[in-house]
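Regression test case RT-17, inverse folding.

Input:
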């Protein structure tokens, strides 16, 4: 039984799948990807949700800057990231009894990466994020549920944006 499990483990390990954070040489960090991420200037995003999203993206970019340089402020910002988010919310009916109903909030996200020096569009992508949440009958609980749905969606959107940027930079030929 143990030998069979060990053999299965070797088969799984030998497949060609690898995490996007793992470069082809096998190390957990890819300096060229981190260097490119560190050079991104995140443009302002409108609305409160956009502010939350921009803050999350700035946190991720700042972490890459800190890894690349002792003086992150001295890094040249060669890329501009523009993100637009449109939101729509739907309440899925009101329950007559004391049970809660639910709502769905949808975000359509469009992102564009631009070379700031050449003013050339390098990468463009769009995606949809939806989140459902309970709508209790209490006003404060309803407000909390809506705010949590927005906050969690911004976390998911920022992660998706960073994943797409990392894949894009990983596919660039080495300089």
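Golden output:
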């Amino acid at each position: 039984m143990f030998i069979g499990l060990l053999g299965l483990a070797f088969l799984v390990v030998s497949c060609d799948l690898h995490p996007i954070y793992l470069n082809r040489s096998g190390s957990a960090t890819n300096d060229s990807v981190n260097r490119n991420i560190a050079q991104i200037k995140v443009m302002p995003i409108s609305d409160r949700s956009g502010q939350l999203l921009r803050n999350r993206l700035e946190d991720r970019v700042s972490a890459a800057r800190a890894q690349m340089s002792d003086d992150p402020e001295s890094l040249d910002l060669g890329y501009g990231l523009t993100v637009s988010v449109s939101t729509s919310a739907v309440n899925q009916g009101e329950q007559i009894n004391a049970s809660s109903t639910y709502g769905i909030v949808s975000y359509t996200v469009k992102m564009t990466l631009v070379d700031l020096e050449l003013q050339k569009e390098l990468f463009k992508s769009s995606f949809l994020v939806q989140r459902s949440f309970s709508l209790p009958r209490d006003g404060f609980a309803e407000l909390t549920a809506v705010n949590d749905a927005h906050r969690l969606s911004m976390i998911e959107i920022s992660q998706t944006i960073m994943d797409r940027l990392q894949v894009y930079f990983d596919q660039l030929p080495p300089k």
